[in-house]
Structures are given as C-alpha cells and as structure tokens.
Amino acid sequence: MKYNSLIPAVMLSETFRSHNLGMAGFLLGLLTAGRGCAEPSCTNRRCLAEMLINKNFSSQPQYENCTQIIHVPFIEYQTLSVDTKKLRLNSRLQATMVWRDDELRWNTSVYQYDEAALPVDKVWTPEIRVTNGIRTTMQHSSRDLLVYSNGTLKHTVIINAEVNCEVNLFNYPFAADECPVAIQTWAAGECGTKLVLGELRMVDGTHGDWETDQVDLQQQRDDRNYIMVSLSIRYVNPFITLLLPSILIVLADVISCTLPLGGGERNSFKVTLVLSFTMFLIILNEQLPGDSKCSPIIRIHFCACLVLLVFSMLLSLVLTRVAKDGLISCCWSKGPVPKNTGNKEEKEDEETKPDISVIQLNGSEEDKQMLRKVVNFLEAFEAKDKESERYQKIANTLDKIFFWFYLVFGTLYFCAMTYVMVKYRCEVNHFDFWY
Predict the structure, then answer these.
(1) For the chain, what is the radius of gyration of the CA atoms?
(2) For residues 56 and 43, what is the distance between their CA atoms, to the nearest angstrom?
(3) How many CB atoms lie within 10 A of CB 302?
(4) CB count, 10 Å around CB of 264?
(5) Cis peptide before 173 (omega within 30 of 0)
C-alpha cells in the first residue's frame, strides 16, 4: 500500500523537474538570442571597415560652429621647374591631413582594433587648393585612408600646381627672387574648413638653371597661408651661353683696331663680327627670358653691344677713307677738274716761268719740254706721296684715339653692367592676387 501511494508523488516530482528544465532552457535561449542581437557575429578588421562604410557619411562633419579644423602636420615641397618665358612656377606638394569625424567612432570592446583602413571615396575628405595657381590638381596618394577608433582620420594628398609668379628677372642671369604658393581650403561664412599647418620640408631643390634656396610657411591673416619659395639662378650656364659670348665678341672688335687700315682686312673682319653677333641674337631669342614689369637688363646689354659693334665698323670705314683722301675729302667729294684749263695754265706758267730746273746747252726744244714734264711728274708724285703720308698719319692718330677710347669705355661699360646685374634690385608685388 505504501509503495502504491508513492508512485503519484514521484511522477509529480518528475513532472515538476521537467518543467523547470524547460523553463531554464527557454530562458537560456532568450539570453543567447538577445546577446546575438546586441553583438555582431563578425568582429574582425574588415567587418569593422564594412560597418563604417555602411554608415555612408560622405558629407563634411558639422558641429555647432559648422567649421571643421584640418590639421596639416607635415608638408613636403618640391620645385619642378621655372618657366622664364611665361613666368610660371611649377611645384609639387605632398601634404598629410588629420581631421575628426565623431560619427566614425567604434567601441573597442566589440571591435578590438584601434585603427582601420577605409576606401578614400567612401568618406568625406578635405580639399586643399593653391590660390594663385593657374592649374592645380589634387590627387590622393593611395586609394585608402586611415581611421582611428576615436574618430580621427589621417590621409595624404599630392598637389601639383602651376603658379603665376612674376619672377624678378631684371638681374638675369644673376636673378634671385621669392615666389609665394598660397594654400587654402573651402570656406563660406561660418561653414567650411580651416587649416592648421605644421612642419614644412623641402626636397630636391635643384632643377635646371634654377635652384630652390629656402622655403618658409608664413601667414598674412588667419585664412591666408602661403609657402614663400626663395629661388635663384645657377648663373654658370647662362653666363657661358649668353653673357660671355657678347664680352668676347666686343673684345675681338676692340683688338681688331690693331689691324692696318689699308687692305680691307679690318673692315671685312668688323663686318663679320656684326653679322655674327646679329645671328647670335636671333638664335638666342627663344632662350632669353620674357618681358615683365622688371624686364631683363641683358636685353639692353645686347642692344648696347650691337650699337658698339656697328659704330666701330662705320668708324673703321670712315678712317679708311680718311687715310686715302684726307679728313675733308672723305666727307665732300672732289669736283671734276677740267683738263684743258689746267693744260693752258701749265703752258702759261712754262712760258712766263724761267727755266731754272734744267739747263741744257745742246738739244732741241722738244727734249726740253719732255724733260720738264718728267720733272713735274716726279714733283707731283712726291707731293702726292707726302700728302698721302700726312693723311695716313691723321687717320692713324684718330684710330689710336678711338682704340683707347673704345678700350676704356668698353671696360667701364662691362664693369658697370655687371655691377647693375648683380646688385640692383627691382621690386615686384607678388601678392596682387589677394585683394
């Protein structure tokens, strides 16, 4: 009887135990399901990047003041080339930018990474422009950027800019000047971006005839940042190809004054020098720098050298005529002398003039006249020879005076021109693009 009465109690206990186990399993399933909804099943770095991409934040982060601070801790500057014809500066900048976007934060207890890589076209990135650039291109250094768990983003861009810079070429080929490369970002009213610049470094400062001496970050206002680039010409090549040939040609023209006036060698040599220098200028016309507010003084130098050469050539031609016909006759030609009148005067002089030069005791009258003509011819030839010597002496004296004047004046001119090229400074306003 007792055994039979215990059966319902055991069955009730088993039923209660089964019910408790079912309830416990149900609650455990609910907890597992709830945890699965709260935490993602994939927590690796790529899933983190996909989670950030799915947020699709392509607009600028905007806060109360609508201004985003862009930190540029490092800028690498490089001068590519300087176009002296168009007065353009081609430069390359590589800038590292850092900014904050709180919408791209993540919980490091879920995604246990402090940084991740995102495609650069899936998030908003700031833009840097060159204010005085005629053509400016900004390209990303890579297809991805770096984002940190606190919402900080870091990215590097490359900027190629062709800057309209009126380089002072007055002292060419000894020119040196400064050219600003203005850097700014987009801003309108209270919205936009603001740059905070850090370190600047120059790389590869020598290109062709130009050399980048120094670069500095400077400001005119809070929103006007620029890189002041100090440029100078490596004057060895322009001096050898432009200035030295003009000096040597003028020196050869000065030394040619030692050649004799007669014979034509000097005149032909001077004409050759003038033609050579003219062809030299025509060939170098494309290589000479362009005109600007401070036009290169080397153009005036070439003009002065050409004037000296032409003046020396013309003076040599005149002195050649002086050595032959005299100082007055070289400018006014002698008029034709009637032959008959002269013969009549000679006959009258012979009749009236007593014959004291020749005494002939025997002989005909014809022999006497013939002898007188020979004597007159010899006297005229001697007089003409003395006159030619006097003309030659006058021409040589004038030629020596011109030689020493040409030598002294040419030396002083080249010294003065070199001093002006090196020392004189022509002022140019490089900030006329800001108003």
Answers:
(1) 49
(2) 19
(3) 20
(4) 11
(5) yes
β-strand partners of 136: 161
- Nearest-5° angle of CA 25, CA 28, CA 33? 125
Nearest one of 283, 259, 277, 243 to 396, comparing CA atoms: 259
DSSP secondary structure letter of residue 114:
S
Residue-wise pLDDT tens for the chain (435 aa)? 443 443 344 344 444 455 454 555 555 554 444 444 445 678 888 999 899 989 888 888 887 778 888 999 999 999 998 888 888 899 999 999 999 998 899 999 889 899 999 999 999 999 999 988 889 999 999 999 999 999 999 999 999 999 988 888 888 888 888 899 999 888 877 788 889 999 999 987 776 778 898 999 998 887 789 999 999 888 888 888 888 888 999 999 999 888 888 777 888 999 999 999 998 888 877 777 767 778 888 888 999 999 999 999 999 888 888 887 776 655 555 545 444 444 544 444 544 444 444 444 455 777 778 877 777 777 777 777 777 788 788 888 888 999 999 999 999 999 999 898 888 888 888 888 887
Residue 311 has which token pair?
């003046």
Yes or no: say if 129 and 163 are a contact pair by the CB < 8 Å rule.
no
| Whether 358 contacts 371, CB under 8 Å | yes
278 three-class SS: helix
Give ∠ CA 292-297-300 in degrees, rounded to 5. Answer: 110
Report the 10 Å Cβ neighbour count for 281.
16
163 strand-pairing partners: 89, 133
- Contact (Cβ atoms closer than 8 angstroms) between residue 123 and residue 92: no
Kind and range of the H or E run holding 158 = strand 152-164
Question: Rounded to 5 degrees, what are φ and ψ at 263?
Answer: 95, -25
- pTM here is 0.70
Alpha helices per DSSP H over 326-364: 339-352
Burial 215-229 (b: 16+ CB within 10 A, else e): bebeeeeeeebbbeb
Residues with Cβ within 8 Å of residue 44, at least 6 apart in sequence: none
Lookup: tokens for 359: 């005494």
**Nearest-angstrom CA–CA distance, 358 and 35:** 154
Percentages helix, strand, coil for the chain (3-state, rounded to 5) are 45, 25, 30
Dig out the tokens for 220 from the structure.
């005119």
